[in-house]
Amino acid sequence: MTQSAGQGGAIWRAMTMANLPDVMAIAVAVHPDYPEDEAIFAERLALYPAGCLCLVDADGAAGYVLSHPWRPCDIPALNALLGAIPADAAAYYIHDLALLPHTHGTGAASDVVARLVEHARNSGFAGMALVAVNRSAGFWQRHGFRETHDAALDRKLASYDDAARYMTREF
Ligand SMILES: CC(C)(COP(=O)(O)OP(=O)(O)OC[C@H]1O[C@@H](n2cnc3c(N)ncnc32)[C@H](O)[C@@H]1OP(=O)(O)O)[C@@H](O)C(=O)NCCC(=O)NCCS
């Protein structure tokens, strides 16, 4: 995926291993209730670099997104290594999208979601999935995602919290 500039002058760039300290600092600030080790971020970046982007503005790193192919109707456990992208990974999974508060409302989040949708569609995936946390379900609904329920998935969601929602978008 190529670079693109948002309304506030921020740019989405391909993430590199050198960005991980900044990405971790954003994760700690934005997701204090869902701590994940740097090894989790590094592994996803190594396994699927095309799905990992950093938002950069005049002050430096301001957000990130991690995404990768995954099995439909399945949720990778929090703070757990994937091991590999599964051979039956027919869905495109957004693991995390996090922006620092000063960039909210600039359209940067919507910009990268549109790019990920385009990437997933062009790559032949059947659809997309994510776990919405932090009351973000409304944001995802605006991008065509709908809540999906399944008994086994609902048990896995317990590793997040009661407010977490599994959401999907079919193509
Ligand atoms: C969720 C998040 C990425 C949205 O970022 P954002 O900067 O508000 O996104 P955008 O500027 O692209 O906003 C797009 C639109 O969605 C709306 N929106 C944002 N969050 C929303 C929510 N929770 N519910 C409903 N609408 C929402 C905005 O008001 C905006 O509306 P507009 O276009 O009519 O002005 C951002 O709030 C964030 O990083 N939150 C913390 C981390 C997080 O919860 N990530 C999601 C994990 S699954």
Automatic annotation (TrEMBL):
Residues 10-171 form the N-acetyltransferase domain. GO terms for molecular function: acyltransferase activity, transferring groups other than amino-acyl groups. The keyword Zinc-finger does not apply. Keywords: Transferase. It holds the Pfam family Acetyltransf_1. This is N-acetyltransferase. It comes from Bosea caraganae.
